[in-house]
Amino acid sequence: MELLQSTAEALRLLMAGDAELWGIIFVSVKVCFLALVIATPPAVLLGFFLASRIFPGRRVLIVAVQTLLALPTVVIGLILYMLLSRQGPFGSMHLLFTQQAMVIGEAILAFPILAALTLSAVQAVDPRVAETARTLGAKPWRTSLTMLLEVRFAVMAAMVSGFGRVISEIGCAMMVGGNIAGVTRNITTAIALETSKGEFVEGIALGIVLVIIALTINFGLALLQGRGGSR
Amino acid sequence: MSLMLVRGLRKSFGERLLFDVAELALQSGSSYLLTGGNGSGKTTMLRILAGLETAQIGSVSFEGVTIPAGEICTQLSPRVVYLHQHPYLFSSSVAANVAYGLKAAGMAHAKREALVREAMTWAGVNHLAHIAPHKLSGGEKQRVALARARILNPKMLLLDEPTANLDEEARRQVAGLIRQMCDNNHCVVIATHDPELMTLKDAVQLRLENAALR
Question: Distance (Å) from the C-alpha of residue B142 to the closest C-alpha of chain A?
Fold first, then answer.
């Protein structure tokens, strides 16, 4: 009964446009979006490079990227905390407990997903793509661009997956963001805080938003995968 | 002077020798029908001539100029264009596919537009200009691929079983386009078993048999 009442209250809060609640949602979306913007170009380039070039150490790099996929978010948070804290090498930049620190952390988290999924997409690309481009006179850079364009839906799906990972994680955001109200408090850190206080209404409201975002992301992912596979 | 002259062409997969050809001379304006049983190496030979596959090559020259064996594709495309048995059309539009080679050559949009329209009209695919390639039939894909190659005015076209797996009508249409290309002073090498193509006028028959070209 309490759960139903709390959920009804949470929905009312959301509909009423509660400024604090929507502020938290905005921080989450903004940080994740910026993290993706920063991580996508180098990650896609790395994924493409690893998939399409043979060079010494390639296997090691691929294993490293795949290992990073499994790295717990708190470990990344911990390493970043140590780097950004006053005693750390980047302490003078005063980034700890700022949105910038959260963006860096989430970008690091998104990077291996983007790189690994681009890598698999390019590895799976039909060999006729590069051959057709080459026989029609394309230079190596255009051939590479053509291959990337052919897997664009898979790369977009990788971005969606990356967004899903960073928006739903809590460890890194909590450690380097510090969960400061109105500054670095995002959906997941707010849910953890409200729950620990025994105040479920805001937590449920944010949980609903997170679930809606997750559903939207998966719906988008399914659409993109459908488009990519329709050839 | 031969358009392409290849000497000492040998391809093997491990212990298995696929073919060993002392000399292959392909002339400008001539068409060649490359036949042979399954696994005789027809596709491999075309791919080697296009520079898409490596082989032991004594020497190769094109229009009298010696080409390093490892640089056939980089130096000769798009003067030499290879078409897969099942052509790959990039996932843009039919018009963008036909324009691909011209764009790669750096031709301005305004200049290539008329050429693209002309090539699509030639192949009878003008009405498909803005269709996504995955919606095309096998015959339509083959015609788009032929238009995409023809627009580059290649000296040599290498066609791998261009009419295989097509229905009667599509085969007739594709064969008609190939005939026109053969009549148009292109050097066309076709790996095929199709009776429709076997009757190509003045075509030179090349048969891969027992690892040799006859």
Answer: 13
